[in-house]
Design goal:
Elements lengths: L23 E5 L3 E6 L2 E6 L10 H11 L3 E3 H7 L6 H15 L7 E4 L4 E4 L2 E4 L16 E5 L5 E5 L12
Parallel strand pairs: 1-7
Antiparallel strand pairs: 1-2, 2-3, 4-6, 5-6, 8-9
Length: about 170
């Protein structure tokens, strides 16, 4: 060797022997990842996980997290400005995930017929950058309003119980 590759910067996460991808949960926050394997949580900054900034693999990971692990290839392609094919982006992301989490098998499956990529692990956006949603809320509880300046106002209804007291 002699030259330090990007993969040598990856601080891999210890995984018990025989662990499969469906036992992994990955939360993507603003500047770090939280990986849960068999109930054990480990955090890695994007840099410790082998990502640089900007990074196509990290963009793909964030997109997958926002889509909760199921991504339409056409939709994904429309998001990116450059010409790097989604197939190549996914291949690079698979490689870094396998270096970070040493589990056998493909972490992201591709259904060629449906043109959909599906994570074999749980993935979602970490709480830090999501919309605060009350327990039991569904899409029926949300209201979206476009302001005159083009920004969206998002509100969600929530049931609250109050204890009434008799006045003096």
């Amino acid at each position: 060797g002699g030259t330090e590759s990007a993969s040598s910067r990856v601080r891999s996460i210890p995984v018990p022997p025989g662990t499969s991808w469906d036992e992994i949960t990955l939360l993507v926050f603003d500047v770090h990842l939280q990986v849960t394997v068999s109930g054990l949580q480990t955090e890695r900054s994007f840099e410790e996980a082998g990502f640089s900034d900007p990074d196509q693999r990290l963009q793909m990971l964030k997109l997958l997290a926002g889509a909760r692990g199921m991504l339409d290839a056409q939709r994904a392609a429309a998001v990116f400005k450059d010409k790097t094919p989604i197939k190549k982006r996914m291949s690079r992301l698979r490689q870094i995930l396998q270096e970070l989490i040493a589990v056998d098998g493909d972490p992201i499956e591709h259904n060629k017929k449906a043109e959909v990529y599906t994570c074999r692990f749980q993935i979602r956006v970490g709480c830090g950058s999501g919309f605060p949603t009350p327990d039991g809320a569904s899409w029926m509880h949300f209201r979206f309003l476009e302001r005159k300046d083009g920004r969206l106002v998002v509100s969600v209804t929530e049931k609250r119980a109050f204890r009434a007291q008799a006045g003096d």
